[in-house]
């Protein structure tokens, strides 16, 4: 299997995690960046292995050591995560560092059909409420007390993020394809209108419904995919959540699929905002800026994913490659619309 050197990886997992060979490795569908595998041993024990893409890895991205540190630090807190089981720093084992965590049973709602199949309307409402309660808990953690006070700079988050993702966008252009210049124009407008930051918290960086594992009743059991986590402006997480949260009356589908939140029972964006504001006391009157930033950031990320897919770095999973270039353009246009709503010229 691409991304897994089965011999040495099996030996490492047997020694450090206690799995009993032979092992079955399965690429978990849906990941668009770091590769995630389900691993099952002879006795039926399951764990999850995370590693970087197999090629076209951008500088400072896909740091397994950092992600392992974050998830380990959050383990004892009120934020539900999968418990970490081991970190392999030796690239000779599998070609890149990787870490292992427990396998959490539950449901990932990747589209509307799954949401309607595994949860009833009450469960979908509970999932909405649980998602906001956990986000408020994450943003309420004392970063020093949990050992993550040095994870990143606390101030100037948006300015740094704008520079970072625009830089990644520059490095992710595909030969022979026209550069989506709208992304550059929006960058200039966002950089010129950065709002004052409301405190400094742990920021997940990609907080959305299908980056969580839900129980049968809709309660959130684990937050997944911490690769973009840092310290900074908590409203960036809220804005990005709005980007992914589609509503029945239309709007941009952030990932080009039938969003799970279109199913009956899920709360509306306005309800989510009210719940978050009530739980945290933060002022969300300027949230449209963060929504615009979220669409723009996602456009930059998908440009990078598109470039890696063209380079064959998807671990054998090439589903969805055809719509990615168009999706970058669509997200940039949605960012423009959110900027207009925010009143930024």
What can you see in these coordinates?
This protein is α+β, with helices and mostly antiparallel strands. The protein has two domains: 6-102, Phosphorylase Kinase, domain 1, CATH 3.30.200.20; 112-342, Aminoglycoside 3'-phosphotransferase, Chain: A, domain 2 (Alpha-Beta Complex), CATH 3.90.1200. The protein is 41% helix and 11% strand. It is built from eleven helices and nine strands. It has a five-stranded antiparallel β-sheet with strand order 1-2-3-5-4, with helices on both faces. A two-stranded antiparallel sheet has the order 6-9. A hairpin with a 5-residue loop joins strand 2 (35-40) and strand 3. Helix 6 runs antiparallel to helix 7 and helix 8 (235-244) crosses helix 10. The mean pLDDT is 90.
Jot down its keywords.
Aminoglycoside 3'-phosphotransferase, Chain: A, domain 2; 345 residues; 2 domains; alpha+beta; globular
List the helices and strands and how they pair.
Layout: H1 6-16, E1 24-27, E2 35-40, E3 46-51, H2 64-74, E4 84-88, H3 91-94, E5 98-102, H4 112-118, H5 121-139, H6 157-171, H7 182-191, E6 201-203, E7 212-214, E8 220-223, E9 230-232, H8 235-244, H9 269-280, H10 287-310, H11 324-342
Antiparallel strand pairs: 1-2, 2-3, 3-5, 4-5, 6-9, 7-8
Summarize the structure in short:
The protein is α+β, with helices and mostly antiparallel strands and 345 residues long. It is built from eleven helices and nine strands. Helix 6 packs antiparallel against helix 7 (182-191), helix 6 runs parallel beside helix 10 (287-310) and helix 7 (182-191) runs antiparallel to helix 10 (287-310).
